[in-house]
Sequence to fold (275 residues):
Amino acid sequence: MEERSKTRICVIGAGIIGGAIAEALTPQYEVTATRRNCDKINGLAGKGIKVTSDNRAAAEEADLVIISVKPVQVVPVLKEIAEAVRGKTVVSFAAAISTDILHMAAPEAHFVRAMTNIAVRVRKGYTLFSLQQDLSKERFPDLEKVLLNLGEIQQVEEQYLDVLTAMSGSGPAYIFTVVESMIYGALREGLPRNLALKAAAYTAIGASCLLLETGKHPSELRDMVLTPGGVTIDGIYELEESRIRTAFMKAIGAASEKGRTLSEEARAHALSDME
Ligand SMILES: NC(=O)c1ccc[n+]([C@@H]2O[C@H](COP(=O)([O-])OP(=O)(O)OC[C@H]3O[C@@H](n4cnc5c(N)ncnc54)[C@H](OP(=O)(O)O)[C@@H]3O)[C@@H](O)[C@H]2O)c1
Fold:
C-alpha cells in the first residue's frame, strides 16, 4: 500500500462537493474540512478528517487549500484567508469564478480553477482544471496526483470551463434524468424497479466505456445498434419526434449562459468589494 503523503490539505466549504473531496483525499493526505456549521460535518471527523469552522487557521496549516463554497461566497472567504494563503496554491472548485477574480481577492496566492462532479463521491469524478496565467505546475508539483484521487483529470484552457461546468459539473443531473426516464419506461412495461435501475445504469456505463475505448463517434456506435427493421429504430423514432437532441443542446446552452451570468455578477461583486 502506498504510504500516506505528508502534504496537508484543507477543504474550505465542506458541503456536498467539498465533503466528498475531503473524503476522497483522506486515505492519502492529512485533511482538514471547514464550514460555519460544524455540527453538519461531525461525521467526517469519524473518518479521520479534522473538522473546524476556523478557515484562517485551517488555511494557515495547509500546504494546499481547496475552496468549495458557493460561487457568491468565494470572494469573501478568500479575503478572510488572504494572509494565510500567501505563496500557497489554492484550488477553487466554484462554478463561474475565473482565476482573475480569484487573484483579485487574494493577490499573493497561486490559483487553480477546477470543475468536477458529484461522482467524486465514488472517486469517479471528471475533474477539469486550468492554471492561473503564468502559473507553472512546478509551483505545486503534486497537483495532478492530488486531483487523481477524485477520478479522471484533464487540464484545459480556462475559456472552456464555463461550458464544461454546464456539461460535466451539471452533467450527472442530465444523465440521472435520462436513466430515470428509462426506468419509468421500463416500469410501464412491468419490469421490477431494481432490475430496471440496474439495466439503465449498467447500460449507461457500458455505452460510455465503449465510446471512450473505441474512440468512435456516437452516431457510428448508434448505427451498430440500429438493425434495419429492428426494435431500436422504433425507440429512436420516438426520441427524435420529442426533439431530444434539441432539448439537450438547449439545456447545455442555458446552463452555460447561467454560468456566464454568475461569472459577471461575481466579477462586479469582487470589484465593488475592492473599492
Ligand atoms: N454540487 C455539485 O454537484 C457541484 C459540482 C461541481 C462543482 N460544484 C461547486 O462546488 C461549490 C459548492 O457546491 P455544493 O453543491 O457542494 O454546495 P453546498 O453543499 O452548499 O456546500 C457549500 C458549503 O460551504 C459552506 N460555507 C459557506 N460559507 C462558508 C464560509 N464562510 N466558511 C466555510 N464554509 C462555508 C457551507 O456550510 P455552512 O453554511 O455551514 O458554512 C456549505 O457546506 C459551488 O461553488 C459549486 O459551483 C458543485
About this structure: The chain has a mean pLDDT of 94. Residues 12-18, 34-37, 40, 55, 68-71, 73, 77, 93-95, 115-118, 169 surround NAP (CB under 6 Å).
